[in-house]
Amino acid sequence: MFNALCKGGIRVNSVRQDAWNSDEDMVLAEMVLRHIREGSTQLEAFKEVAEQLSRTPAACGFRWNSLIRKSYQSAIEIAKQQRKELKKQQVTDEISNEIKEEQKSFSNENDHNNAIKMVDVISYLKLLQKEQKQLDIIKKENARLTKEVEELKTNNGALNKELQLINEKYQTVREDYKALISIMERARKMIVFEGEDNENITFHMDLNGNLEKVKK
Q1: Predicted model pTM
Q2: What stretch or stretches form a coiled coil here (predicted)?
């Protein structure tokens, strides 16, 4: 329809630059909506329409964005919703196919290996029973150790209190000892002073309780 003859008589598509008509607008709109529904891009739609109508993709894109798109806003939203539903269905189909393949593979494997032998089941149950006994022993030992730790904490607290009392008694004895040494020292000085000439000497007690000779 929109073909032209080149040199040599070979027909090639020529790029149209004439005005758009309503039929072409309808083709453009339907093509864009289909690409939106199928998850494709508008650029791909413009390329396909360009080949069909012998126009450039740029001209198709300009026509769509500047004029036609405004009249198909509702249809665009419906196409986008259909695209989402299509993607959901594709995901559901993929999951369903994977499940079927796994079930088929599992079934084939079971058919190939037959049923599990009863002796294997018994051996496995015995192993579980043995492991359970070992676990019970570990739990009992853990409970015993926990109890010992609590008893040690209690004994440690009692020993700390006893040590505190001993320290307090030690401080009291040490203070009493210092006081006794002080008294003995004063007594010794008084004995020394008695052998001297007391007529010219008097005594004075300082702030620490020591006696000092003071000449008259």
Answers
A1: 0.38
A2: 128-176
Amino acid symbol at 141: E
Give residue 6's pLDDT: 37
In a domain, residue 129? The reply is no
Q: What angle do CA 131, 132, 137 make, to 5 degrees?
A: 95
Residue 64's Cβ-count burial label (10 Å; 0-12, 13-18, 19+) is: buried
pLDDT at position 47 over 80: yes
Q: Could you tell me if 42 and 32 are in contact, meaning their C-beta atoms sit under 8 angstroms apart?
A: yes
Angle at 47 between CA 46 and CA 50, to 5 degrees: 80
In a domain, 77, yes or no: yes
Give the rounded distance of the alpha carbon of 85 from its chain centre: 33
Highest mean pLDDT pick, 68-77, 170-179, 206-215: 68-77
- Measured between alpha carbons, how far is 10 from 152 in angstroms, rounded to an integer? 106
Q: How many domains, in total, are found in the chain? A: 2
